[in-house]
Amino acid sequence: MITIDAMMVCLDLSDVDEKLVAFSRSICERLEVRKVYFVHNIRLYELGDDFQELIGEVDLRKEVEGNITEIVAEQFGNITDHEILVREDPNTEVLLADLVKRYNVQLTLLGKKMSDKGAGTLGTKLLRILPCSVLVFPEAASFHLRKVLVPIDFTDTTIHILRFSKALADQLHLQLEIMHVYRLPTQFFPLISEKEAVRKAVQLVNGKFADLQRRYQEIAGVPYALVRAANKSIGERIALHLEKGGHDLLVLGLRGNSPLPMLNLGSVPSEIYSSDINVPLWLVYAEEAVRR
């Protein structure tokens, strides 16, 4: 059973906040979440001297806290224990990473606007620096989860991500599908037969998956899709399969080989985050990797 001792919800006072808070309620209704922290950082240095003079004696921190309190009361209620944290720090990424460590946050919830509304650079930085799993909620995403897609790469993170995804699917009564995207060494064509190369690659990957099923019986009956990257990146193939399959949630594992989580994001999660997928993206760290 998946239990979240502490979850942090990052708010930026944009239109996404109400959806994000409502989604956090949906999570608490379906998973055991013991404490939720709603966090906003006021970056006064971005306001400029003129605007700060306009504010005058207004207690901006109190006003922001009041605004968030109203949203939380309307969209979240008292479904579980929660706290509103408003800070004034010049470095939002470092502040949030410190809060994760201070409150032992296991999951951070981030909102994400479409790419035409911003570059999303803060979100990318947070994905690299936060020492916990991250759930990204795009502004066009739905709260209703029915199907979850889990791409794997047969690295050390594969077993953890499969076990987590299976437990999540069982707990939320979701349909679970596993996929793997493979590439062929096209630089050797036509020296070798492309047809034979595809056959060999499929045979090899199916063998790896069959071995996983033998060793971990909990995934024995889970559907599995094998997709060739061909002329697209792995991230693009995942996004296409996600849309084609009508999935409502994408789960990706984050690397745990380095003691610094900021070095472990990986190219595929980074590419997926930067794209305009319209389903929540759950980026999962193995707990033992975070504790190092």
From TrEMBL:
Residue ranges occupied by any UspA domain in the UniProt entry: 146-272
Pfam families: Usp
UniProt superkingdom: Bacteria
InterPro entries for this protein: UspA
Protein name, per record: Universal stress protein
